[in-house]
């Protein structure tokens, strides 16, 4: 961004961030991977205490804590090698709730810093966790990178393809760690299932189907009204062109409005499209089509509530993602999942940390169930325990240079699949794509959607 984020708030310099990162790497070398609130099997509390630098903590700030951000802040606070030092939210109620929760967990109260740009001035803060609305994802991550911070960025990594390319440029320029929050990349049995696909368990995989289904209600027709006293609507909109406040926008319904959101394809589809791309070992497609619409209700919802995205690749493979926001009929017995189809069988990964292999006769060849053990003393959602593995991978990348489970280039590539689907839907035609970089070819109408307009003075720049 040009004016407000840097000049007005005097964000910490990149050199300060480099010094802090070097310190973290030195003091935390050799730390062990931890589970959500407990030690992984094979490590006792006594053995963990002997690890060099075990008491040094990665200090994080969290931006956007109304829903997903609250879960993330809690998860980070429960990590023994982490301290949540700052909470930033434009909703004062959400911030207070999250601060109380984090304080209860880690026994130290994070600072209430409504404007995350002020939080970035803290030279002792190592990383920013971003769970704000989609239109803020890339701009906030770029500002954090400029401030010398590492970034844990919830999916999708960007609102539009151009922002994804800016993120890659930022990571290259500022040499920080940017991990996208497609947590299944770190779930052990999901990774094992993908490895089975790669090793030939179903022969050569040539097609994969993914899906998401739900029974979301209508968002109605909003009325323009005064901005609530608890909401900083100007900062909430941030880089997005200004729109009048309506009573059905905040929170969550912004997902279905193009000015701020990206629809179900990026809201939930990104997770499955990432697994599909991972399994087929592809990067960019060469052809994309999409069909669908807002069919269920007549209201303010703009993005499709029903959508099919088809993508084809150079290695003679293809994938299809189906999203149904307002009809929850499951597919293959699951509300979310993927199925890889190969020459000798198929492999399904559904909601949890598990997979099943089927032969061409539809009989089960192998079934791997979730065997992830969580400390029984901790009452938690099992998926949060699994997600802690992704968080620890982020920490290991910061401390030891461990490869990320979801580095930003791959995060952009997976996000782009859904974005190209949305562009095909909105432009009403087939997209021919350069498979070397994901760029749209010879389609001026579609190419207009590669970027977005920004509120003057808030444009993200690397």
TrEMBL record:
Coiled coil: none annotated. One of its GO terms (molecular function) is nucleotide binding. Residues 243-347 form the GFO/IDH/MocA-like oxidoreductase domain. Signal peptide: none annotated. It holds the Pfam family GFO_IDH_MocA_C2. Residues 58-181 form the Gfo/Idh/MocA-like oxidoreductase N-terminal domain. It comes from the Bacteria. Residues 352-458 form the Gfo/Idh/MocA-like oxidoreductase bacterial type C-terminal domain. Gene3D superfamilies: Dihydrodipicolinate Reductase, domain 2, NAD(P)-binding Rossmann-like Domain. PROSITE patterns: TAT. This is Gfo/Idh/MocA family oxidoreductase.
